[in-house]
Design a protein that fits this description.
CATH architecture: Orthogonal Bundle
Radius of gyration: 11 Å
Strand content: under 5%
CATH topology: 434 Repressor (Amino-terminal Domain)
Low-confidence stretches: none
Mean pLDDT: 95
Structural class: mainly alpha
Helix content: 55-70%
Number of strands: 0
Order of helices and strands: HHHHH
Number of domains: 1
Length: about 70
């Protein structure tokens, strides 16, 4: 997974969904705020289930999700 592309995509959709912080994003998943920051800084360590929760919380289109996984 390209870490820069992941962070850019998450930031883009956070802004579109009016989610201002990583902690607020964590509230939409089952992950704690501290763990979400760790995953945001090291996207390679994100389990697929958490990745899918983040993508669902941000309502990222299927095509962009697939591009991130490649």
């Amino acid at each position: 997974m390209n870490a820069d592309l992941f962070r850019a995509t998450v930031r883009k959709y956070m802004e579109l969904r009016h989610i201002r912080t990583i902690s607020r994003l964590a509230e939409h998943t089952t992950v704690s705020g501290a763990t979400m920051y760790r995953y945001f800084n090291d996207p390679e360590s994100i389990p697929i289930g958490v990745f899918l929760q983040i993508m669902k919380a941000l309502n990222v289109p299927k095509e962009e999700k697939e591009a991130l996984i490649k």
